[in-house]
Known about the structure:
The chain is 36% helix and 24% strand.
Amino acid sequence: MILTLFRDAAATVPAYRRFLEEQGVDPATVGDPAAIPLMTKAGYHQRYPLPDRCRDGRLDAAAVVAVSSGSSGRPTVWPRTDRDEEPVVARFEQVFRDGFGAAHRSTLAVVCFALGNWVGGIYTVAACRRLAAAGYPITVAAPGNDIGEILRVVGELGTHYDQTVLLGYPPFVKNVIDAGRARGVGWAGYGIKLVLAGEVFSEQWRELVAARAGIDDPESGVAALYGTADAGVLGNETPMSVRIRRFLARRPDVAARLFGDSRLPTLVQFDPATRWFESMPDGTLTFSCDGTVPLVRYHIADEGGVVAHDELVSLCRAHGFDPGEGPRLPFVYVFGRSLFTVSFFGANVYPENVTVGLERPSVSGWTTGRFVLRTIEDADRDRRLSVVVELAAGAEPSEDRRMLAAVSIRTELLRLNSEFAHYVPSAYQTPLVELRPADDPEFFPRGVKHRYTRPEERS
């Protein structure tokens, strides 16, 4: 797949031809995919004009555009055609058909992603509508990320369907369910199912939210998608992948040997006919896929790896667990971009945004500018954005200073990061700030290269 896509892109995409020339690569001499240079957002998308990155230089061939925010807060535009949506629709279809039985059950699909041109909402609405057009008894409602409107839609329409599917970012969907419970909503009467995207969540989180939503079987009733703004959905949880992940959650020793990390990543299956993943030596992923803007060995810096279907099934059986039947598709596991960003309510929060907040005059005089950005999960499984800030030598912590830093960071996040402003509910936009002394050994040890982000933590 990669070589075919590579040669086609080299012949038809003006920017890619220039990219290869600048890399000193002659497409006619490449016979090994490993010889194809990696494509990155900074090294490719940000260097060439958008029309030149489209096949035949034709931006006007796109049917629609979606946007996502980068570290500068300036939206990045992703054009696509109806044909580009087909692999994405196939992933939604696998979830709705195999997990939810939607081919034979009337389904209300409630899109809880932010609407407008934001990629999550626009892709999800399009995919669900195309399933309906293909004959699935699915009705799409798109209240967006307005909890009151979501609850109104479910209350007014949900009883007329066999099941109701909430589609959104994990912490926001949990907020919807909790808000409904507080208002007396009997979720169990709506046959709730969940489609989630954008963040890694624990199996304890899956069980808790499933229980609160009245979902009897969290293995088939809660499905995560793995996707990017660049290419839409790349892979999806299947009941089989969820069963395997739940087994690995119970056997952290097996998981650590498999993943090389004590964290439990998202585990999805993908179709190598339309998306092709590669594991890099540094533990990150590249993928290749066709589209209006073809992506060839695109390195997005997600930490993770690829496992063949038979290899993973055999590993489970060798440890006494049979994962049962499922699609014979390879697996990709994804930790996320923990070295670079933190995902919060589906918004990528960049260290650069936090840095600006700490550079404001009201804060910069008593901080060093170093910090650790992470998400934490409390006992009720609610996610919060946490920023541990290093105090300047001799500076003393106080509640006033803590709040000054929190408000300053929030102000800059809202100013610089449009995803944060649109995706994160206002009640969660102010980070939890903790002030630590200079050279604190837990967060700011001397003699060690500082990392500005850390994996999600749970209490």
